[in-house]
Amino acid sequence: MHSRKERFDPPRQRPAPGAGNAERLAAVLARLAVRHRVPGAQVAVWSGGETAMVQTGVESRGRPMRESSRVPIGSITKVATATLAMVLVSDGDLELDQPVGEILGDPGLPASLTLRGLLSHTSGLPSDPADAAGNCRREVRSAEFVCEPGTAFSYSNLGYALVGQLIEDVTGMGWRQAVESILLRPLDIEPVYVDSPGVATGHARDGERPLAQVLPPMLDPAGALALSARDLVALGRVHLGKPGLLDVVTASDLHRPVPGAEPFGLADGWGLGLACFGDEESRWLGHDGTADGTSCHLRIDQAGACVLALTANGAGGTDLWHDLVGELPEFGLPPHRVQVAESCPIPLPEGDFGSFRNGAIGYTVRPDGLGGACLDVDGDVFPELTRYADGTFTVRDPATGRATPCGRFRGEPGAAAAVEIGGRLARRC
Fold first, then answer.
1. Which of 55, 54, 52, 56 is CA-nearest to residue 34?
2. Which of 157, 152, 221 lies closest to 426, judged by CA?
């Protein structure tokens, strides 16, 4: 067990966000929300020992967006789950490399499954359970692994559901009770979930059509929280050593990029629950999250002791975030890097057509009837698939009409054994 008495000591701080900067931030946020048809959004910044927060628009019909408004944060919930798990590691209640089956007393779970693999998305588990209304352990026992554990990155909500099971087993509490009592309340965060009354309503890309939140209870540890941007900043500050929930050694393990975890299309690296953005000289930690019609983003700069968070209750929030980063150069955030092809397009070889699967999700690369190819994702068709010699491919985004980087083939041209799409690895079937 490591002592919590050791504390972080960031070497420098960015200037505090003064009133003038907050006014500028509010103006930028309001303009970008209109541009991207986002009904409401919040931005919070912690720097220089101060927090500035601004908001714009409405949280739902007839209710303005407030500082206290809670927005479904989607997969940023995983940051809370991973942080809670690492607090338990710090206290000696969990071990990163002990087989999960040993901890749970379940010999039916593969011996290769460890907490380290689950947190870093290198467990080999598929993205989602085949039966989200079923039993988590049974789903893991019957899952078809997409790769050997520890050999590749493949984003897995099912993996985080299993982390939730570990937390419940060692604490004797349900996941919600554990995350509240051990993590959120000590941070002065009032826990709210996607099924709580009064949560901000998500909206489709047109900014008009409201969307209901749908999340099976099994996946609570992967996406159930609804928080404000100020709450996200408080969660991010844990990773700057405030208020000392994690000791230095455990936190360093959590933040360090895992070898072999290459999150193509999502980030530049991945630690134990946090994505890594930028290079070693300018690295930010964080996570992105989308729920039904919401888009939220969290970034943590350890070197500059700065935390920045955005919550948006519209599907256009991701584009808003990318533009926001570009308009705030003073924070030094790494720009969004779309992983574009580094070589010329090539005709799609016959051997790259076919079906690929990640758990319940099916991907089919097939002829489009016009002499080209398209990508079929469980019936949703993305046209004009173009392959490049480096293995990457683009499709035409139906919403914008633009060619958009989508993923990459794994293997030599004409002999693709798998595809990577949205950070998920799908094997040929």
1. 56
2. 152
Q: Rounded CA gap, 395 and 355, in Å?
A: 17
Task: Kindly state the helix (H) or strand (E) to which residue 423 belongs, with its residue range.
Answer: none
Query: Which residue is associated with the tokens 């929030």?
Result: 317
| Pairwise CA distance, residues 285 & 239, whole Å | 9
31: exposed, middle or buried (C-beta count within 10 Å: 0-12, 13-18, 19+)? middle
φ, ψ for residue 420, nearest 5 deg: -115, 120
Amino acid found at 239: H
Q: How far apart are CA 236 and CA 299, in angstroms?
A: 8
φ/ψ (deg, to 5) at 309: -140, 145
Q: Whose structure tokens read 């927090």?
A: 51
- What gap in Å lies between CA 66 and CA 73, rounded to an integer? 16
Find, among 296, 329, 400, the residue nearest to 40 by Cα.
296
Tens digit of each residue's pLDDT (9 = 90 or more) over 302-359:
888 899 999 999 999 999 999 999 998 888 888 766 566 667 899 999 999 999 999 9
| 27, two tokens | 């103006």
Residue 133 burial class via C-beta count within 10 angstroms: exposed 0-12, middle 13-18, buried 19 and up? exposed
Residue 51's φ and ψ, nearest 5 degrees, are -115, 130
The residue type of 206 is D
How are beta strands 210-211 and 345-346 bridged, if at all? unpaired
Q: Find out whether 271 and 255 touch, Cβ atoms under 8 Å.
A: yes
| Amino acid present at 368 | D
pTM for the predicted model, two decimal places: 0.93
CB-CB neighbours of 163 under 10 Å:
25
Strand locations in 70-135 (E): 71-72
pLDDT in tens, 24-75: 999 999 999 999 999 999 999 999 888 999 999 999 988 999 999 999 999 9
Q: Which of 238, 128, 133, 225 is nearest to 176 (CA)?
A: 225
With beta carbons less than 8 A apart as the criterion, state whether 8 and 286 touch: no
The DSSP line for 135-194 is: -HHHHHHH---SS-TTSS----HHHHHHHHHHHHHHHSS-HHHHIIIIIIGGGT----BT
Residues 6+ apart with CB under 8 A from 158: 125, 126, 127, 128, 129, 136, 139, 140, 143, 359
Contacts of 39 (CB under 8 A, 6+ apart): 33, 57, 58, 59, 60, 201, 203, 207, 313, 314
Q: d(Cα 159, Cα 119) in Å, to the nearest integer? A: 8
Other CB atoms within a 10 A radius of the CB of residue 5 amount to 8
